[in-house]
Amino acid sequence: MSITLLSSPLQGFTDFRFRNAFHQYFGGIDTFYAPYIRLNGKLVIKNNYQRDLDPENNTVPHLIPQVMTNDPDEFLFVIKYIESLGYTELNWNLGCPYPMVTKQGMGSGMICNPSKIDDVLHKAHNESDITISMKMRMGYDDPTEILGVFPILEKYPIKNIAIHARIGKQLYKGGTDLDAFQNCVDQSPHKLYYNGDVTSVQAYRDLQERFPSIDHWMIGRGLIADPFLPQMIRDNTTEYPKDRWQIFKAFHDTIYQQYDEALSGPMPIKMKMLGFWEYFSQSFNDPRKVYKAIKKNGSPRNYRATVNEIFAKQR
Ligand SMILES: Cc1cc2nc3c(=O)[nH]c(=O)nc-3n(C[C@H](O)[C@H](O)[C@H](O)COP(=O)(O)O)c2cc1C
User: Fold this and answer.
1) Distance CA 187, CA 184 (A)
2) How does strand 31-37 pair with strand 4-7?
3) Does residue 1 register a pLDDT over 80?
4) What is the arithmetic mean of pLDDT over 246-264?
5) Ligand 1 and 197: CB distance under 6 A
6) What is the separation of C-alpha 101 from the centre of its chain, rounded to a whole number of angstroms?
């Protein structure tokens, strides 16, 4: 079966610099989702979202913008904005688990409110002909919440529903609920994409065996922790390329240089790279030691020396 692999968005990580470099060095991903746009009550698109979606800044073959809102006017405003840039699909985030979002009835906090979802989709489909896709958790409090949304989604030509097989109140703790995901497969007439904890080729193989009808797989954290993963899934191999660490280092150096140019002062770049190393370190022999070594660096010069040492040890 031919499969489609999609990069699941991570706000603060998978911006255009990351996506472009990822595609250049590792490949394996068919479609990238941009992290969500959020408007915060004003019909204004912030500069950092504009930069991230500007077609001039993006070299990946297929990019889909995402929005997080519960407001029909905001949704339509974002549709018009991304259409002006030439995009033809908008992904709607009904997955974010964080209380400051869910308490406002957004992200996974909106799944229990099908009529509000209906309002947004009604206006969007009445007043534009953009393609809309969904990214959802299965609920906030309970994984059956999503089942109450399916009849609403059936009214609209939704392209697909990507489901992160957790509920909001779990945040990222605990396992995925594969039985609940199976209920979604059984009950939704829509095209479903699977998302959640695809962290290795073996994990992918197990999931593919359990859900043979799924042919679209979204990978988020696993792709930052092991950027070779998508191509290895595609090639059906557990063998890394011979020049694994040279490629990883070249990728690291590329994003480091770009973030260093974009961020001012030693602290922001340190925090940016430390965020990445929380994931990168999982690819290395002793993840905790690697992360600690990165964390204790004060200056950019020390940081670069430590990175060189860490990669040299892997070869
Ligand atoms: C730091 C962080 C930021 C995230 N930002 C977004 C986002 O902007 N939009 C979104 O749909 N999901 C976001 N997610 C969720 C991921 O895209 C993904 O659905 C989730 O991590 C489960 O997939 P995974 O196990 O493959 O990582 C984020 C997750 C994390 C950890």
Assistant:
1) 5
2) parallel
3) no
4) 97
5) yes
6) 17
